[in-house]
Write a sequence for this structure.
């Protein structure tokens, strides 16, 4: 059985060579920690916060994230689709999530605030009622994605095919409407 670690702050730790002890972390804060290219697989994080951390290309296979906040962190290339998706609950503020994989996940109501999501893959996701607040979605992939009532109104570089996604009630600004017509290679003048 995993050890339970409660209310602990981990500051400035480097877990790139030595892995974080396998445990159930509850209400813990990880600040300025480096997990890049390391191993966080089979861990449990409940009500934890990652602040100014680097988790790029970290192995998160079968990891549980429930009520976990990421802020000012690098999460490039993470495969969230390999996590334990049961009760998954994440929030992202000012994070770099480029090349991250969210395929096949239920992310209803997911909030992405001021995030860089270049080439992130949202194929076959349920992003209904999600909000991309001031996010850069350059070359992000939306394919067979549920985008019902998803708010893209302040997002930039939105490009997706309305015929290949469910979009009833999705919200766009006039500035990002051209990304819905990109496949037709037409010019839109302002």
């Amino acid at each position: 059985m995993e050890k339970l670690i409660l209310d602990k702050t981990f500051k400035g730790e480097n877990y790139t060579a030595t892995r974080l002890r396998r445990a159930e972390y509850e209400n813990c804060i990880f600040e300025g920690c480096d997990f890049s290219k390391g191993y966080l697989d089979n861990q449990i994080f409940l009500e934890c916060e990652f602040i100014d951390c680097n988790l790029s290309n970290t192995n998160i296979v079968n990891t549980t994230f429930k009520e976990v906040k990421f802020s000012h962190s690098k999460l490039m290339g993470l495969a969230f689709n390999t996590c334990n998706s049961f009760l998954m609950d994440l929030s992202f503020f000012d994070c770099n999530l480029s090349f991250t994989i969210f395929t096949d996940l239920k992310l209803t109501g997911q909030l992405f605030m001021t995030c860089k999501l270049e080439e992130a893959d949202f194929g076959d996701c349920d992003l209904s009622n999600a909000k991309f607040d001031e996010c850069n979605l350059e070359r992000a992939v939306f394919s067979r994605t549920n985008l019902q009532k998803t708010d893209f109104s302040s997002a930039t570089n939105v490009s997706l095919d309305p015929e290949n996604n469910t979009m009833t009630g999705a919200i766009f600004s006039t500035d990002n409407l051209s990304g819905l017509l990109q496949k037709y290679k037409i010019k839109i003048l302002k």
